Amino acid sequence: MRSLASRLSVMSGEGALSVFARAKELERQGRSIIHLELGEPDFHPAVPVLDALEQALRAGKDRYCTVAGVPALREELAHYLLRTRRVSVEAKDIVIAPGCKIALFLTLMAIVNPGDEVLYPDPGFPGYPSITAGFGGIPVAYELVERHAFQPDPDEIARKITPRTKAILTCSPNNPTGTVYSDHVQRRIAELAVEHDLYVLSDEIYARIIYGDDYLSMLSYPGMPERTVIIDGFSKSFAMTGWRLGYAVAPPEIVEQLELLAINTYTCVAEFTQYAAIEALRDTSGATPKMVKEFAGRREQFVRELNQVPGFRCPHPDGAFYAWVNITGTGMTAEEVCRVMLEEAGVAAIPGAAFGPSGRDLVRFSFASSNAMLHEAVARIQKASVAWQGTPAAR
Length: 395
What we know:
By secondary structure, this protein is an alpha/beta fold. Helices cover 38% and strands 14% of the residues.
């Protein structure tokens, strides 16, 4: 049998999904498992969104539609981005995709040639280096470390830019750290992009889930509209994970290529979900602010209780719904801690190395669960912590 494409050998999976698979296996054995491994809100779309979906189906909105997306949705997205991020774009700058991961995949496909370097955050979403490598690019990590409050170091990024660098990937709020990049950091990254004529792929999927100041998009800085691609979607801010609905906001030359790639892959996104998404953006019931307020309360409780677990150290995340916990005080590796929590306590979390080498001493928990469930999870972890209490702390 002939060999498969060699590009697959340089791509990787996602640690969160492997932990989820083991957790589900334990559930099938009758174990009680608290799932804190997946980044999925425990909310569902607001009732007006579901009503809009039903109305669209009854109106026959189940046909092929415009490749770049339903014009009404693209127009609404332009209004939404101006209202929530103060960035001015036009409908023609937007391409709708079946999930923001596909939007990221096709954008990298449009930009990256073999040998091109793409700077990406470590820790970060595992797809960044995997997809880049799959297209023959060279992923180059810049670290997010605790001594810098998990903010990117612009000086490090500057040192890693070479004549082969094509793009910088940013993610704010970051997954898994929950860090919202500061204005200083983003402004300096924008200056570097302009200076070296680089694209910036700004992953803004968590942009609405922040607990402090107003959100600053990379697109808002001088010189960035002509070189920035926003990757975003409806999964997190509108609790529409299974709807697989995302979008890219891009300069004209990239929009043209994204439309070509859409024609050659998914043709178009389901028409009826796009009409329902218009209602999600309008959010007449205030569902998103209510959800974020609930997450803020969970953040306070969960971080406070995690910091009471022997050997755990957890800062307050600025955004998203992840607790990024340093476990060096346990004297065990993150993989060992996660194994104990899952196998003995029935709590599923992700070893930080799943998000890159810089996460090797950390564990990611999702707090997209009820306060009661989070409290129970910490109680279970407290009991299981006897496995590492008395173990010399790692240096």
